[in-house]
Amino acid sequence: MQFIKNIYILLIVFSASLASGQSVEFVMKTSKQKLGINERLRVDFEMNRDGDNFNPPNFSNFTVVGGPNQSVSNSWINGKRTYKKTYSYFLAPKKRGTFTISQASIVIEGNTYKTTPKRIQVTAAVEIPKDPNDPSYVASEGVHLVAEVSNASPFLNEAITVVYKLYISPTIGVDQMNEIDSPRYNDFWSQIINTQNEKVQNGKYNGEDYRFLVYKKAVLYPQKTGELEIEPLSLDLALRVPTNRRDMFGNRLMSRVNRTISAGKKTIHVKALPEAGKPVDFTGAVGSFDFDVTTSKTELDATESLQLNIAVKGVGNLKLFKLPKVSLPSSLEVYEPEHDENVKTNSSGMHGKITDSYTIVPQYKGKYPIPSISFSFFDIKSKSYKRLSSEEILIHVLNGPASHSANTENNAALGVNKQEVVSNTDHFAFIKTQTDFYPIKQSYFFKTKLFWSLLLLPFLAIPLAIVVRNKKADRDADISGNKIRKANKLVKKYLSHAKKSLGHKEAFYIALEKALHNYLKAKLHIETSDMSKEKITHLLEGKQVNQAVITDFISLIERCELARYTPIDIATMQEDFEKAGTTISLIDKQAR
After folding, report:
1. Predicted confidence (pLDDT) per residue in 4-49, tens digit
2. At the top level of its lineage, which domain of life is listed (predicted)?
């Protein structure tokens, strides 16, 4: 019997030695490499040896909806020991695209191991199979996002409105709502309408009573013909869903569910404007408009200026076409127009007025006609082209020099071929006959104050460099001080991570716990595996730290351990963050 017992012990020792001889493995596994924006991704970090200082990657393009969950598997199969430890995260994508989950790291037996990065592709929302017993199914049946299009078959440049309505069953509560994927409205000119003042209303969806909210409105003007797609809008909702369980008072208990919903894409069939009857000067105006041409004055003197205003007002694509150009006699100097838009956009489209204002300066006296100006547009109501024209405007220039062409005509009529020569003795009056020359004193850079300063500066810098080098050498030799400074940097780093994570319970307390552990490792010279509450208390008391400060520090560590499993609001997180900074500062001051 003793012999069999000895054989059994030898087998255990031999198996343990085989297990210790196995190579260390640390890998990242994902539940899928391609998923819809409304799906969840599971990421597991597995290792075959126990490790320390596990550092997960930054899931910047995902929201952590669960985890980290830790599991350990330790088994014997055919005399061979198998060990596996896993950290699991459940992620929800924030937007579409191809993203890389970067490396995670861990320290095993004094060596640092890292995982291989993985690329994840996030597509548009997909249809998820429904389970009637799953709270997510209840949420899927009671929450709907619908896109309503005012006109699915508009003309080119005709306004259409897309209204996104969120329908919610009266039995479901909404705690939080985030837009995670916005339509890009390719091939449309778009304008988002403000819906912040919209109130929740009662209505019907599929014949049942619902509450609904107009979440978003967009006015679109199609810029090309054919079939155009409006991409889906996706929202991430934190919901409270009723369950079949009841409390001791008979009230129904609620379950918290995160759900991503999509409005689905819409296809718009855009019709081309008719070619029959299209004016030659048509520039793409579509809507219902009035046309007006006015001048600021009709009588003025030469070299004075007047304003010519060409204006179009009404309802239509006012920002998407150009006003007609004006053609004037060469005797009128015309400047580039100033364009002004007084346009507002509401659910019916753009409405308002656009104006081109020309500044005109006549050079000679006379009468100058501004010819009629025409503007053509496609009228949506009558589905035909219309042309509007202005009246001719006559400009009277009362005083000023006569134009050369007018003098030539008058002389020819009188039979005069000679031209009177006017003597002018001031042709060369601009030439100065006396000079203001003065001698210039030449200066040299040599022997100036700046020259001597630059010359002596290197010699003055040598003692300063020696002092700086000596201080750096003393600082490098201070091993204990360098450890403390390194620990302080780590504490600031993780406290900054915790501050950024305020409001996200799991991420906040993970960062806070790491800051406290790294501080203790440098301050007390202990490893994470030795960090029991009794040993921490004993070491801090040995450094003459006040008992109240020690109690606060231990309570912070306990709070980090329990916070993942208890509901905590943001005010408590803020209080713990401030308490951590104060406690670490007090330990630094009191420790001997």
Report:
1. 555 545 444 444 444 445 688 889 988 888 888 888 888 999 988 8
2. Bacteria
Complete DSSP assignment for 175-187: EEEEEEE----TT
CATH class of 287-397: mainly beta
Pairing of strands 34-36, 286-295: unpaired
> Which numeric CATH code is attached to 135-270?
2.60.40
CA distance 26 to 581: 34
Burial of 285 (C-beta count, 10 Å sphere; 0-12/13-18/19+) = buried
- What contacts 5, CB < 8 A, 6 or more positions away? none
* Closest by Cα among 550, 499, 548, 561 to 524: 550
Measuring CA to CA, which residue among 592, 578, 531 is closest to residue 557? 531
> Boundaries of CATH 1.20.120 in the chain?
479-590
Domain range 2-123, CATH class: mainly beta
- pLDDT reported for residue 294: 94
| Pair 41, 91: CB distance under 8 Å | yes
- pTM (two decimals): 0.49
CB 61 within 8 A of CB 99: yes
* Per-state percent for the chain, helix, strand, coil, to nearest 5: 30, 40, 35
- Residues 62-67, mean pLDDT to the nearest whole number: 84
| Topology of domain 479-590, CATH | Four Helix Bundle (Hemerythrin (Met), subunit A) (1.20.120)
Q: Mean pLDDT across the chain, nearest whole number?
A: 81
Q: Is 45 in contact with 51 (CB distance < 8 Å)?
A: no
